[in-house]
Amino acid sequence: MRLLFIGPPGAGKGTQAQRVAERLGIAHVSTGDMFRAQVAAGTELGKRVEAIMKAGDYVPDEVTVAMLAERIAEPDAAAGFILDGFPRTLGQVEALDDLLGPDGLDRVVVLDVPEDELVRRLLARGRADDTEETVRTRLAVYREQTEPLVDLYSRRGIVVHVDGVGDVDEITERVLAAVDSRPGAE
Ligand code: AMP
């Protein structure tokens, strides 16, 4: 099973991707987590992306795509994976199509959360890249660059929408049900 989770910053995408990957016994592949690990380890890549992440902008596609390609070639991804935070641009969709083939994803799960709830959650969690200005930038960047991907994957007939407001356990069950369902039925 190869899944992609899409949702604005603050939607709980990372939390749900982690939980659902565990339940399905597949790999959780988060480009944000991978970049944060590089920054924490002080690698060359980490130094290159640190300021970009702090500003709330996207890391250049060639950097992100190379890192992702290596990750999904690892043995634990052979049984399946949840992509969390990649692809995020139309260029990255093309790169993923090249890596997996055009029928490479089984489902795209879109976590829906209203914008004022997102801002409230993001300012409450207090991560280093979650200042008020960065939060605004990240939401704007998401709307401009990533939201178009929902339409693109909808045209492929693989999108399922899940209500991302409510109890964490309940949302996990909603996602699992949606993954099993016929796309478009949600
Ligand atoms: P996330 O944890 O997914 O919100 O990612 C945190 C930050 O990592 C983003 O704001 C970007 O700066 C960077 N990042 C993660 N994934 C990508 C991606 N697919 N393309 C570009 N930048 C990314």
Q: Overall 3D geometry?
A: globular
List the ligand species.
Answer: adenosine monophosphate
CATH classification class: Alpha Beta
Unreliable spans are: none
Number of strands: 5
| Pattern of helices and strands | EHEHHHEHEHHEH
Architecture (CATH level 2) name? 3-Layer(aba) Sandwich
Major beta sheet, strand line-up = 2-3-1-4-5
N- and C-termini, Cα separation: 19 Å
Q: In percent, how much strand structure appears in the residues?
A: 5-15%
Q: By helix and strand content, what is the structural category?
A: alpha/beta
Superfamily (CATH H level) name: P-loop containing nucleotide triphosphate hydrolases
| Helical content class | 55-70%
Sheet with most strands: 5 strands, parallel
- Count of domains: 1
Residue-averaged pLDDT: 93
Q: Number of helical segments? A: 8
- The CATH topology comes to Rossmann fold
Please tell me about this protein's structure.
The chain has 186 residues and is α/β, with parallel strands linked by helices. It has one domain: 3-Layer(aba) Sandwich (Rossmann fold). The chain is 57% helix and 13% strand. It contains eight helices and five strands, in the order E-H-E-H-H-H-E-H-E-H-H-E-H. Strands 2-3-1-4-5 form a five-stranded parallel beta sheet, sandwiched between helices. The chain is globular. The model has no long low-confidence stretch (mean pLDDT 93). It binds adenosine monophosphate. The site of adenosine monophosphate has 16 residues, from helix 2 and helix 3.
Can you summarize this structure?
The chain is 57% helix and 13% strand.
